[in-house]
Write a sequence for this structure.
């Protein structure tokens, strides 16, 4: 069984082909797509709609549009010209200019690369699929937007 993930800049959708048909897997809110948002708090990491709701009061610890950061350095003019768009803090990794997203999680400051945040999102949707299918998913195809690293 192979999971298909449509990884958009703002939403993620998942589906699986089984029993000779394509089945869209819904999230915990019974929606066919999940906002590509990750929220960090003193208690936990939350995803999708829950993270969006958290972002209204904890915006500095709510990461959105992370896919747009992948493949860019912090000094990239596209990043620098759009820093005001992101509610969370970012900085350059020492010596490499890689982007580090700065959040507070469980009372500690954490610095994570955009790819690490993306990994958390992908693990979340894989867990959703595993729960609904009642079977571990080992194979996956990920579809990206044609210009996923443009801002």
């Amino acid at each position: 069984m192979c999971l298909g993930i449509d990884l958009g800049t703002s939403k993620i959708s998942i589906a699986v082909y089984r029993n000779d048909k394509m089945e869209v897997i819904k999230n915990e809110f019974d929606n066919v797509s999940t906002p590509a948002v990750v929220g960090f708090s003193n208690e936990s990491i939350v995803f999708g709609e829950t993270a969006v709701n958290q972002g209204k009061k904890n915006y500095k610890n709510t990461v959105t549009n992370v896919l747009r950061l992948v493949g860019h350095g912090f000094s990239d003019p596209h990043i620098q010209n759009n820093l005001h768009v992101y509610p969370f803090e970012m900085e350059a990794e020492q010596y490499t200019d890689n982007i580090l997203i700065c959040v507070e999680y469980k009372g500690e400051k954490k610095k994570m690369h955009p790819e690490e945040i993306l990994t958390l999102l992908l693990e979340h949707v894989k867990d959703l699929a595993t729960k609904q299918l009642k079977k571990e998913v080992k194979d996956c195809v990920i579809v990206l937007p044609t210009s996923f690293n443009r801002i």
The radius of gyration is 16 Å. The longest helix spans residues 114-133. The longest strand covers residues 11-18. DSSP finds three helices and eleven strands in the chain.
